[in-house]
Amino acid sequence: MKRTIRLHISPCPNDTFMFDALVNGRIDCGELTFEV
């Protein structure tokens, strides 16, 4: 079952760096998808 997790991040460079790979599909998360 595919699940979507909604993330809210600030435009702070530290936040965007940490979540870049996750929200752009560079990390295999199986059935999870992420929405910002």
Automatic annotation (TrEMBL):
Name of the protein in question: 1,4-dihydroxy-6-naphthoate synthase
